[in-house]
Structure formats: C-alpha cells, structure tokens
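ERR on first pass: missing label on line 2. Operator R.T. fixed the label and resubmitted. Corrected input:
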Amino acid sequence: MDKEDLAHRVNPDQAMLGELMDRYGQDVWNYAYFLVKHRAMADDIAQDTFIQAYRHFSGFRQEASLKTWLLRIARNVSFNYRNAAFFRKALLMDIVSPRHPGRSAEQDYLEREAASEIWRCVMELPVKLRETLVLHARYELSVAEIADLQRIPEGTVKSRLFAARRRMESLLKEDYEDGPAY
Amino acid sequence: MVQPTNPQWYEELRGEPLKERNFTDTLAARIKERATQTPKFAWMRSRVAAAGLAAAVVASGAIFYTGLSDSQSHKFIDAPGTDTISSAIGTSDGPIRVKFGSGSTEAEAYNEKNRRDLTWIQPDDHAKFQFWTIRYKDGSYKFGGDYYVKVGSAQDWQRQGSSTFTEVAGESRLNNLGLFSHAFGHDQFTVLAGQLTDDAIASAYLTNTNDERTDASIAQNADGRFWVAIVNGRLSDFTLQMIDREGRPVGEPLR
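pass 2 clean. output:
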C-alpha cells in the first residue's frame, strides 16, 4: 500500500491503521513529545491521535497531507491533555520523591537519551518556539502550513522562527564555551 | 539539502531527537486493540449514561462519587459502598454529599479484565467525570480520567477531554514519582484526582485564595491509593497540600 493508496482510502481497517502507524507513528510520538516533554503523556497522545484518525478517517480532506492531518489531531489532543494535567508536574513529583535536587525524571531522561547537543538545546526552548522550529526544520512544513496548523498569522510564524534560531545560536554558543563536544 | 537561509544545524534536526524509538510495537498493538473496540465502547457509554441518570435521580442534585473505598479507614472495599461524607462545597440545598459505590459494570463493558473504575462524579445532568485504572496483560499500567458532556438532540454522552498517565511495563517510571494527578474544569467546579505512590502521604487538601480549605477524599482499589476532590472555583485559585497520617504537611504547597 503506497502513500497515495493510503490517502484515498475511505473506510479504514486494521491493516490501514497498521500502515498509518508504521509510517507516521514515530513522527506523531515525537511531535507529542516536543509539545509536552513527557514520555508517558506522549504515549497517550499518540494513542488518542491514531484512535481518532481511525474513527474519523472520512474527515480527512486531501488538501492537507496525511502527516499534517495527523499532526493537527495530535496538537489538539495534546492541548486537551495539557489543560487537564495541571498538577502533573515534575516539581510535584520530585518534592515527594527527591532524587536529584531541581531535576525531574524526565529531565534526567532527556539528558541521557537526547540524540545530540542540538536536540538538547531544542528541548530547552519555550514550547511555542520549540514547536515552530521543529515543524519547520524536522517536519519540513512551510511557513504557510505551520500558520495553518497553529492557526496563527504567517508573520507570527516567521517571528517565532527568528526568535527560535536566535535562542538556539545562543544556547549552542554557551555549550561551545562550556566545552562540550559539539 | 540545506537551504541557504537555514542555519547549518538544521540538517541535524532532520534526524531522530532521541536515541531510542518510543513508538513501540507494544504501543501500536494497544492502539489497534483500543481503536477496534468501538461497538463495546458505545455500549459502555450508554450503560454509563443510564447509570448516571439513575444516580442523578437518587442524588436529587447532589454530586456523587462512586468508588471503591471509604475515606476514613483507607481500607480497600471490593463491593458497593454506602458511606457518605460531606464536601466543603455548599449549594442552595446544603452541602454536597459524596458517596462511594461500585463501578463494576463499566469494567465488564470494556472487556478489559483488569480495568478498575475508581470514581465516578456527576455534578449535574449534563456532565460527568470518570477516573479509572487499567492493568494490561504485559504489566503496563494506566491511570486516567475522562470528562463527558451530553450533546445534540439525542443527548448522547460525548467525551470532551481525557487525561491519562501510562506506566509502560519494565520502565518503572511510576516508581520514580511521588504522585501524579488530573484536573478538569466544568462550569464553576474543578474536579481533581491523583494517585498517591508514596506511603508517606496519607491525604491532601486544597486551599483557595481566601484560605478556605477543601479536603480530598481518599479512594483505593487494587492498583493503589488515590485522592479525589471537587472544588468551587478555577484551578488556578487553589494550592494543593499533601499531608501525612498525622495531618502534618509533606512538602510545600503546590499551585
């Protein structure tokens, strides 16, 4: 089943769901993780995203790519989760079971498992800048597509990209001056 | 190909951000299982709606918690309960009563043998909140809550939001956490629930900006201990304080 076949299917079945997850599962999970920086939440957001996509596939309109459509669902799901999970904070967790002062389990994980210093810096950005940057750099969406996904003017996307790049340059410079390998 | 306007490090962002692949086969299998449960899920929702209406009639406008424990002894009760406590929230009809009971019918409807409904809260005829735990066959664990409202002329229950926490088998994330929790807003109320994973914590209370205190209720099932609270106001107006068995504060208040 190629990409075109997938997009033209109207009635989803398990094989198609499997194909969707094979092709876009990690992308959707990564996007959720970029938004919430929490693996368990990213698992749940990815799960709800594909369940919604499966149940509402007839709502897919082909003016957007399947990937963009899935990212939009993931974005909406993640906002529901973030709004509902107010108290679920690393701070809250670590106060009760302190392991490393000032750090959460998720911060430890990211420090250990980030693929590179560049990604560590990306994850330090504020969420609005982080999301815009990864949509542009990693998912290769155009400014217009990002604006449509985030429902903001293209000018705002451009200014966020500019700010994100500037912040990244600053973080990378700090890392270089502190002496890591990058 | 790096575009001239893009910085050089853009190229590295084309790759994966984490060393390990997190969208695992186990997760994909679980999604397939859940996605194809539509008929059972729809049937479960209708059963819950029917149960909710019945409870609303009995409650005469009171807010009901249906759960598996009483709040005083912290003892696991695996049978319908009748214990009631009073919430700090008042209405024109007097204090809102909190009642614990059984939610076993929903567990059967989901056909997930290890699903355990914890609390079920219906502040009015048009909204309800459900908290539950699921233990999967592979050992993974999930604690979650769902917020439903009635929509359309048919007045069907439709899920408006969810909040879940998943502990994937073998990763021991839960053991690293003292507690985690969920919160939903509905009209003037905010409904909260959290799992207590640290034995040092016995309960919790919330305090609003006028220093008025709302004690959480404690529910317990085979998956652990949980605090549940409903407060009158926006979540941002409250701080959460955990306490030990002597009522002494544990940690700083959390906003």
